[in-house]
Amino acid sequence: MLARALEILEPMFIEQVLPASGHALLATEEQWTTLLKSIPDAAAPVREKLTAAWAEANSTPKEKWLQLKKHMQVFVKSMAKSGAGKAPQKMSNKERSRLENWTAEVVFRHSYPRLDIEVSKKQNHLLKSPFCVHPKTGRVCVPIDPEKVDDFDPFAVPTLSQLMEELDEFDKEAASERKLQNWEKTSLKEYFEPFQKQFLEPLTKEIRRQERDAAEEQAALEGDF
Questions:
Q1: I need a surface site. Which of 21, 30, 192, 225 has the fewest CB within 10 A?
Q2: In the chain, where are the structural domains located?
Q3: Across residues 81-105, what is the average pLDDT?
Q4: What is the pTM of this model?
Q5: Any residues with CB less than 8 A from the CB of 84 and at least 6 apart, and which?
Q6: pLDDT for 89
Q7: What is the pLDDT of residue 218?
Q8: For residue range 115-143, what is the model confidence (pLDDT) as tens digits?
């Protein structure tokens, strides 16, 4: 699972976290010095070599990251060879594993989705279904159209008080030829209609199809034609 996640996250990490246009993790000397200091002490030679090299070279953040990965890989391999360079000849499996996984941990630390443990384990923290109301903000939990997710503004979704005002206003002023559902009278319509057409209606049709197939199968077994 982590290997698959790393394949997805590392290109995003290089593009959005390393350069100055992103989080600038390797864009300035101050930033890359902080990162190099986080290298485990067992790989101190890598830290020292790159600190000196990057102070002189004019490389891009991506190039620095690739250099860092390569130096860590070479250093870990050198530990398996007796007396290779400054690599310690004796190192615990735990220390070696930490060095082998260090670059992946850096990627995960800066780009892996964060999970809030309190939200995950407590029912009163988690909105478990569409159209729940957040207890503090009063905003309605709405389904998001996957094709419009980049344009979604969480601060633009309606609040409970707003919906109540819209409902009252509609009932006072508007007249309709047919009886409308309450959600059709408010700004919740733009969220509920796609949810109904793209999820609820196909789901209902599938359930009915399964029930029909099961009934026909049962009738065939019982010989009731």
A1: 225
A2: 2-111, 122-225
A3: 74
A4: 0.54
A5: 78
A6: 54
A7: 86
A8: 777 777 777 665 567 888 888 889 999 99
